[in-house]
Amino acid sequence: MEMPDFWDQEADASLAARDEAAGRLAQLFRQLDSIGNHGAEGYSRFAWSDEEAALRVWFAAQMQRRGFRVEVDAAGNQWAWFGEPSAEHPGVTVGSHMDSVPGGGAFDGPLGVLSAIAAFDVLRENGWTPRCPIGIASFHDEEGARFAVACFGSRVLTGILPADRALARTDADGISVREALDGFAAKLEHVREMQQSGLDCLSDFSEAEIGAAFADSHAPEGQAADLEYLKRSAAHIELHIEQGCMQSDLGAPVAVADAIWPHGRWRVDFEGEPNHAGSTPLDRRHDAMLAFARFVQRVREEAAAAPDARATVGRVEVEPNGVNVIAAHVTCWLDCRAAKAQTVVDIVHRLGAWLAGSDGNGLENSGLKGAGLGGNGLDGVTATLTRESWTEATVFSPELRDALVQAVSAWGDDATADNAKSHGAESGGAQLAAGQSDGVELRGEQFDDAQSDTAHNGDAQSAVEQFREKESANSQAVHSAKDSEPGNLAAAHRTTELAPVIGTAAGHDAGILAESGCAAGMLFVRNETGASHTPREYATLADATQGVYAYAAAIHDCADRVAAGWRPRSVQGER
C-alpha cells in the first residue's frame, strides 16, 4: 500500500496491510495529502480557498459513497448523516475540522475527521448496524487562519459569533467573509477543472460521484446561527491529536478530555512616526517596531511569572514595512490562556497597564492607550489594546466523559495508560469584560470591570473535582458489553484500568458546542513530538490506529445508550 510521506513506507505499510483500521486510515490520509501540501513548509488550508473547495468535495464524495446524506448548515459546516436525526430522535455525532494554520501539520484536524470515517468503516465491516443516527462533521475554519477568529464555523452556528459580525470580518487582503462566500462558487469550479485534469484526491471517484459531491459542497448564502440543528445530536465526540506532551509522559496512546482552558485573543496597535533609517538620530525616534519588540519581551515575562499560563505574540503587521524606514505603525496579536480565567485577566490587565505607562499595579492614564510614559520604554509610541475574542473555561459533559472513559477503557489495555491519574485543567469560568462582544476595545473602566467581574464557575469546578475523586478511588465501573453482539470491539480486550483524563490549553469546536449547552466530549491521540501548528506534529500510525478503535468503541457504546434514551447533560446548561 502506498503510504503518505509522513509515515514509514515499510514498517507502517506492513501495519496497514495487517490491520483493517490502520489500512483504512492510511488510505484516507494518502488521498487527502496533496491538498495544500507544501512539503517541508507544511500544510496551508484556509477558509473559502481552493484548498477548502477540494476538501469539501472530497469529504462529500467519501461520505456519499458510504450511504451518508451530506448537507451544509447555516454557518458553512458540512455534516454527513447515516439515518434521519431529529430533535425527538437525535443521534451521535463525531468529527473535527480539516483546515489548517499557515504551515501546519498533517494531523491537527484531519485526524479527527478521517478517524471518524475509518471507525465507521471498521464497525460496519464487523457487522454493526447503528441503533440511532450517526453524524460525521467537518467543521469550517476551526483554525481561523484567514479571518482571525478561531472555531469560526462552530461559533457562528451556536450564535457565539453573531452573523453580521462574521460576515464583516476581513482577511489580510481586505476581502470580507461576505465576499469570500460570494466567490466560493468560482473556487469549486476551479477544483472541478483540476479534477478533470487528474486531481489526486478525487481520482478514485466516478463522474457521477463527483457531480453529487459538488452539489453538497457549496457555501451557505450567508452566515446564521442554528441551535435547532444541533438538537439533532444527543452527544458530540471529537477526536484530536494532543497538542502537548502529557500523553507521552503518561505512556497513553489515547486519553479522554475533561476541560479546555479559558483563552482569548487581543490586537495591539503601536502608533509611531515614520522617518529615515539613516538620518534620524536614535534619541529622536518614535519607533513602533522597537515598542513592539519590548512588548513581546514583556508578554513572555508576564506569562513566565504566572501559574499554568501561556501567552504568545505570533502575528505582526508593519507599516510602511520598508528596510530603510522607521516603522510608523505595528499591529500584533496576543494569544493568552491559562488554567484559571483569573490568571488570564491578571496578565492582560498588567500588560495593558504597562502599555499605558504604569508599573502594572494601576493605570496612570485614563485608558489603555499609552503615550510611552513611565518605565515601559515605548519612547513616545502610543499603544492600544483591543480584545478580539474570549472563550471561558469549558468543562465537557461529565456524563459523556464518564461514558468515554468506560468505552475506551473497556476496549483494551493498549489504549490506556498504566495509571488513571487526571491531569485536567483547572476549571473555572470568567467573564472578561462583562457585557462586551468581540472586537470592542478594552479601555479604562471597562477593563477594570473585566477584572472585578471575574467569577468562578462553581458547578463546573465541582463536576471535575467529583470525577477526579472517583478516579482516585478507582471506583469507575467499566461498561460491560455483550460479547456476541456484532461490531463489539470491547469483547476481546477488556481491562479494568481507566483511560487517563487530561485537560487541554488548546481550543476546539467541541468546546464551542459545549459552551453553547451541547453535550460534547473529546478523545486525544498521543503526539510523539508534543509539537502542534507545525509540520513537526506527529502521531504514529500505531497510535492513530489505537485512536480509530477507541473512537469506534465510543461510537458503538454511545449510540446504544442514545438509542435507549440516554441524554447526557452539559455543564454549561441546556440549549
UniProtKB/TrEMBL annotation:
Q: Where is this region: Disordered?
A: 416-490
The enzyme's main class, written as a single word, is hydrolase
Regions of biased composition (Polar residues) lie at 452-464
Q: Does the keyword Hydrolase apply?
A: yes
Q: Which UniProt keywords apply?
A: Hydrolase
Q: Which GO MF term does the entry hold, naming one?
A: hydrolase activity, acting on carbon-nitrogen (but not peptide) bonds, in linear amidines
EC assignment: the record states 3.5.1.87
Residue limits of the Peptidase M20 dimerisation domain? 265-356
What InterPro entries has UniProt attached to this entry?
A: Amidase_Cbmase, Bact_exopeptidase_dim_dom, Peptidase_M20, Peptidase_M20_dimer
| Similarity comment: family membership | Belongs to the peptidase M20 family.
Protein name listed in UniProt: Hydantoinase/carbamoylase family amidase
Q: Which organism is it from?
A: Bifidobacterium subtile
